[in-house]
Amino acid sequence: MRKEITFTLNNEEVTVEVEPKWTLLYLLREVLGLTGTKEGCGYGECGACTVIIEGKAVNSCIYPVLEAEGKNITTIEGLSKNGELHVLQKAFIEKGAVQCGFCTPGMIMSAKALLDEKPNPTEDDIKEAIEGNLCRCTGYVMIIDAIKSVAAGR
Amino acid sequence: MRSFEYYKPNSIEEAIKIMSGLDNAKFIAGGTDVMVQLRQKKISPQHLISLRNISELRNIDTKDGLKIGSLVTHDDIDKNEYIKKYYSALTDATSRLGSKQIRNVATIGGNICNAAPSADTACPLLIFDAKAVIIGTKGEREVDLNEFFLGPGKTVLEKDEILKEFSMPRLKENTGSAYIKHTRREAMDLPILGVATRITISLDKDSQIRCRDLLCTIDSISNILMQLKDEGLKCEEARIAMGVVAPKPIRAKKAEEALAGKIISIELFEEVGEIAASEAQPRDSIRGEAWYRKEMIKVLVKRALMKSIDRIVRPDEEIYPERLW
To answer: How much is the ipTM here?
Structure first.
C-alpha cells in the first residue's frame, strides 16, 4: 500500500507517495528524476549511490524509502547554486579527478559530508571518508588531491 | 523484490505488540544487512518493523560500566571518547567495519543479531563480559553474550523479543584491550580472522615507567617481551575472544586460564597463542584456509595482548610513536 511522506530534498520540501519496498535511491532516480545519484552494486558496497542524510553520508540503495520521512537530504543536484558549480565539483574538474564519471557524484557527496564535519581534514581523514566509494578509473590520487585542494582553500 | 508493509513504532512495547500480531515479520535496524538480504532475495518478509524511531534504544550510558543501546550506530561508538579510552577494543572494531556510509547507519545491535561468525563487534563485547538485555512479551531477561549466539544467523532471540542493549561491567584499574581485524584490505572487508583481548596487570609506578621506555623502543615484539619478563608484570585477569574460527564468535577460555596469575613473558604468550589456536575450529573459506587461520591466531593473540598492555602503559599514545602491533 502506498504511503505519503514529506522530507526536505536539496533545501526544498517534497511530499510524495511511495511504495514501502522502494529504496531512497529508487525514489530519487525513477520517481523524482534525479539521476545524478547512481546505482552501482545495489548492495551498499560501492558508494555510487551516496547521498547526505542529516549531515551524514549514506548509501541510498539500501536505505528504506519510508525512513526518509522528515529527514533533510542532499543529493549531488543540490550542490550547485544559481547555475554555478560547488567548489568540490570545480576542484574535481580542475584536478582531473573524473574519468568515466560514474563514481563522481558519490565521491563528491562523501567528500562534502567530510568537509562539513571537518573543514581541515588530514589525508587519512579523506581516505577514510571515501573508503566506501569505489573508482575503477582514476586510481584515487587525483580524487584525494581534489578534496585536499578544497580543504586547503577554505 | 516482494512487497512488504513497513512499520515505524516509537516504543519498544509498541514494536513488540506489532510483531506478536504478525506472521512472517522481521525487525529492521540500520538495514545494512536486512536490505541487502532483501535485495538478494535471501529473505522475503511480508512485514518490516523498523526500530529506528525508538529513541530509548539509542543511549550510551557510561555511569557504571558501559551500556550501549542496540540502535547505537558504529559511527556513534567511534566518536565516543569514553569508549575509546576505556573500552578500546570496541572502537578498534567499529572504526574498521564496512565504510563510512555503512558505519553511519549500521547499528551494534544489528551486527550482533545478524549473528555472522565474522561480526566485528562480537569479539570486543565478549571480552568485556557483555550481557544482552532482551525485552519481550514475557518481560525482560539478560543473556550472557557467550550464550546469545546459537550458530550462523541464529540467536536466542524469540520471535517477539527485542535486543534492548548491551551491559558491560566496570573495568578494573590497569586494564587494557584491543581487537585486531585481520583483513586483506583496510576498508570494506570482512575479517579473515578477528581476535580481541583484554588484560588486567599488576603495575607499580616504577615498573610503569620502565615498561613505557621499553615499549617506546623500536625493538621487535619478541625482544620487548623477553625484557618484559624481568619487570615481573603479573596478569591478574584476561579475556580472549576469536571471530571466524567457529560457527559463532567464541571465547578462548583455556587460553584465558593459562594467562591468569602468570608473569608475562614471551614463553607464556606463545603458550597462550598455541592453546587459543587449539580451541578454534576454523573452516577453509574464500577468505582463508583453516591451517592459515590457526597459525594466525597464534600471531594475533600475541599482538592483541601486547597492544592491550601498551594501552595500559601508554594511555596517551600521541606522546609516543604508535607501535604497529
So the answer is: 0.96
